[in-house]
């Protein structure tokens, strides 16, 4: 972005800007600057920063304006020159804690200000952030510490200090503010840091300091020193003062429930617990709020410029915030919810230090008010707007260039714009005269004194692109795997052992058999019978998921019950596999259109994407393009969480098809979603000769007739619509690609039509309904499947509350969203009472403009309601689940669901995904009727949605949903009984094997041009290949993970699971390094377990079936020992009387090899593996 920085330098070098900077630095400490257009205000701030010897602070009216300013400033000056200081999004007197990201970012800014920041640096903060007290400079310094490698530090004292300052102990550190100790290793995540810290002690000496990845828990960066900041802004070390103050309050006037809550919170504060809403009590830990209360201003260096965007508007807004807060305080006191003497948690305008200078900083008002005394800035003018009329824009640019002016365009369509200007000029303009830069700036302007005009997408297309916030903490995120799923296993859960059947998991136990001590899973069967499963056979055990929500019958050991159930399931999957293969075979024999590789326009369109693609998006896009460039019709399903970028993949695929002259149909389940996709596709393809149209009930009959005629004539390239597109009267000239969004939402008749299309054209299906990974594997190769489970970089998890219906909370939630210029969905899924609910909300929150949307409105009414909501004319949309599929309103960041017990888990997850699609923290409130008993299933659903808070949790939700309501509806009623009998995991593995074997037969038959033979009548399932390749090991090793090495049982179980899955020596070595890194030096039993794994890996590589021990010898068995292998063994061990080689075995004398037996056994296995 050097070219953008050059523009700022040019503005800074203007005589008017230099004079303004001098006046601000040397004149009175409080000054005004004459009006500057809104679009030019941020560039002016950037230019002034180049003249400043200290950081600048730019204060905006609200968070939205602050985020936009910070985004633009990063474009102008680079990401390292901008720091964003957010406000806590909790309302005053609200029992809510600010998000971890907000705390971390505020502390990070304070920590950086304590260092010697080198200008240019601009701090951006909304007004509200400066009205919220924080730690003073002295408090921050005393609560921070610096650790040095090789320093001596008492480990116990360090832990006590950090816990007293608010770090919370956990089994594994995965979030800011957490701490964990395992022997001589201490993990913690300072809130101001991007990544957690691992401290390894040798006694009381710090042996090493390392950063580690919170997802893999592996360290990857060594440090010589590290700073540890406090985990939040509440000075918890003032606990005695806080408790004394709280206890002195008169709470006798509180109603009984409020008194009970108050007492419970007091007990938790005494115990030093962290709990939701602890920030509510923060004022008690500080001195009473007043002019001396510390805020960001107290951390600024001397002579710092504080630039206020509209000081008089800031004062008015501060007054409004204070009035709202006081009204809420009065209401809570009146309702006997709050003690009358509760301290005020915020500063007012007069106390903020923004109305007059009380410290060493300088106040500057960037105002719209004309005043004689105001300082003169450079004169900016407004840029012209073109509203998507590209030809008019090109004409304007060329006219200006020929008149000797300079033009800069900052746009997502930079390459295409440069190309069109060059065509119009019959040659490329010089970079000094015209340049198109790929980027996103809020708005453009003219600067006559520099003979310069700047255009952005706001002027070109009439849209304002938003770039994701660059401050966001980077996290490694991975999809749910089977080991992670097993880690959630709890005592009392139902499990399935592949050989013994359904049991109850009773925990881990250590047992000694002979002289060998190992750890076992205890499984309890019918009649109290128990089986002890060695941890090296943990892959034979899976969690039970049935077909419904009833508990399964435990298997009776010593009977044929389990074998009978498995036989029936094998036969059932055989039938299902044949059905799946029929469509596969039909596709393989058809020949479709092989699309050409990407051209320059394709690269230009993809370059205009306003966000950074995730690795998953790029991988999935490559898979889709590979399919399209092949002549077999594509049938790919893209499965990904809501908001993870499936639409962008579809858009690029559609554009690729159009480049080959083919037409594209995008089929969506609702008219609202059709409208939204239509707008998105039109906007992204505006710079290219691509005609996008929509066919839905939002179009009149006459409009539909015109569109269908143009479709038939080939004048429409991309058509977007509902099931109307599947009607027989919709005829294409040359259809090449069908994209289906949420196919499961369509009816049987529509699905049959789609099935016909699949055999003829490329089909791409999108779904946000999570599909269990085990089922993905079962379908592998039949229905090509791509998964996007990495969230966009700037997404923050949605904060979810499950609570009885509470009108006070509803009002607070809506007002908080309005205060940050956001919007609210209120989901009420009964049309007959929806208007009553909307009227009730209007009375409850008269400040909000409320609209109503549901599927029974006529087309025009529904369209208008949705457009009004998109364009911000409605603050709250009271609606049914019509918003469930794909609706994307980035300013809607609060979701309220009325009577949430009436929704399924996957549906709740989908609904919640409609919010949190921007850089702002989003909230979801799931209300249930507190006066009615909930069913156990409903309670489980609400617990599960509250637990699934991290991004990309969709697959865990899918598995949890299967647990709650069973897997029967996933594969049809006829399969339900078999799923119930053997469990979903084993059923999926049986299906996977049946599908793969039949697929090989179909492929082989087609390859030889023969007719595929009928599938065999008898089941072909081989049970042994359903688990890891089998090697029997009976070794004299006490091998397990001691509980004092990995104390957390669930974590230990997960490590065992990964160990058993390790089948390569490289994996075993990596596991050893990981154990050393995460838990310290492995004790002897853990080292023995690693030896066990090495022997297993070598045995697998060598094709060995068993390595066993008797009193006299070790015996290595193989199916057959070939001549070459025997010769190699004789060359190496021919003269060793302790090694005997037979046709199917190798025997080693146990006494002679002694304590070094494992090395000898591995040596033999290495020779076998090499051959």
UniProtKB/TrEMBL annotation:
Protein name, per record: Transcription-repair-coupling factor
Family matches, as InterPro entries: CarD-like/TRCF_RID, CarD-like/TRCF_RID_sf, DEAD/DEAH_box_helicase_dom, Helicase_ATP-bd, Helicase_C-like, Mfd, P-loop_NTPase, RecG/Mfd
Q: Name one GO cellular component term.
A: cytoplasm
Name the source organism: Oscillochloris trichoides DG-6
Q: Which UniProt keywords apply?
A: ATP-binding, Cytoplasm, DNA damage, DNA repair, DNA-binding, Helicase, Hydrolase, Nucleotide-binding
Recorded hits in SUPFAM superfamilies, A to Z, give: CarD-like (SSF141259), P-loop containing nucleoside triphosphate hydrolases (SSF52540), TRCF domain-like (SSF143517)
Q: Is Nucleotide-binding among this UniProt entry's keywords?
A: yes
Among the record's GO biological process terms, what is one? regulation of DNA-templated transcription
Key word Cell wall biogenesis/degradation present: no
Which EC number(s) does the record attach to this protein? 3.6.4.-
Q: Which residues form the Helicase ATP-binding domain?
A: 627-788
The family classification in the record reads: In the C-terminal section; belongs to the helicase family. RecG subfamily. In the N-terminal section; belongs to the UvrB family.
Helicase C-terminal domain: residues covered: 809-963
Lineage in the entry? Bacteria, Bacillati, Chloroflexota, Chloroflexia, Chloroflexales
* Function comment: Couples transcription and DNA repair by recognizing RNA polymerase (RNAP) stalled at DNA lesions. Mediates ATP-dependent release of RNAP and its truncated transcript from the DNA, and recruitment of nucleotide excision repair machinery to the damaged site.
MF (Gene Ontology): ATP binding; damaged DNA binding; DNA helicase activity; hydrolase activity
Name its cellular compartments.
Answer: Cytoplasm
Against Pfam families, the record matches this protein to:
CarD_TRCF_RID (PF02559), DEAD (PF00270), Helicase_C (PF00271), TRCF (PF03461), UvrB_inter (PF17757)
The broad enzyme category this protein falls into is: hydrolase
